[in-house]
């Protein structure tokens, strides 16, 4: 009975998460490598820039679109981070989801 309950619980859990697949699985290898290179280049620009706190900002790239998330100390830092991301070769778009820390 315990085995049946465990199997049923796992089955329901799998069904519940079926629609939660990340689209990254549908990327080609070349696109994945390009996205990784863009992410690395954006992070490197953040590290080189004294205005941007590279540790507080997360960078993810999918199909050339960069998503910035995390916290900025000011609206100026948020703007600079977005500007630096746009300057990286291969960037098709930037979604700036940075929150300004009070």
Brief descriptors of the model:
single chain; 102 residues; alpha+beta; Histidine-containing Protein, Chain: A; 3-stranded mixed beta sheet; 3 strands; 46% helix
Report on this structure.
By secondary structure, the protein is of the alpha+beta class. 46% of the residues lie in helices and 22% in strands. The chain is built from three helices and three strands; from the N terminus they run H-H-E-E-H-E. A three-stranded mixed sheet has the order 1-2-3. The longest helix is centred in the middle third of the chain and has 20 residues, at 29-48. The radius of gyration is 19 Å and the shape is elongated. The relative contact order is 0.15.
Order of helices and strands: HHEEHE
Known CATH architecture: 2-Layer Sandwich
* Spatial arrangement of strands, main beta sheet: 1-2-3
CATH class: Alpha Beta
Structural class: alpha+beta
Q: What is the third-level CATH name, the topology?
A: Histidine-containing Protein, Chain: A
Radius of gyration: 19 Å
Fraction in beta strands: 15-25%
| First-last Cα distance | 54 Å
Count of DSSP E strands?
3
Task: Compose a concise summary of this entry.
The chain has helices spanning 2-16, 29-48, 75-86; strands at 57-62, 65-72, 93-100. Strands 1-2-3 form a three-stranded mixed beta sheet. Helices cover 46% and strands 22% of the residues.
Q: How is this fold's topology laid out?
A:
Elements: H1 2-16, H2 29-48, E1 57-62, E2 65-72, H3 75-86, E3 93-100
Parallel strand pairs: 2-3
Antiparallel strand pairs: 1-2
């Amino acid at each position: 009975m315990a085995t049946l309950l465990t199997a049923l619980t796992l089955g329901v859990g799998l069904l519940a998460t079926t629609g939660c697949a990340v689209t990254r699985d549908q990327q080609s290898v070349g696109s994945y490598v390009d996205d990784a290179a863009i992410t690395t280049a954006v992070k490197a620009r953040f590290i080189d820039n004294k205005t941007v706190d590279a540790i507080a900002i997360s960078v993810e790239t999918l199909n050339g679109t960069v998503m910035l998330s995390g916290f900025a100390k000011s609206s100026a830092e948020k703007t600079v981070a977005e500007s630096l991301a746009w300057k990286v070769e291969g960037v098709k778009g930037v979604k700036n989801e940075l929150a300004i820390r009070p």
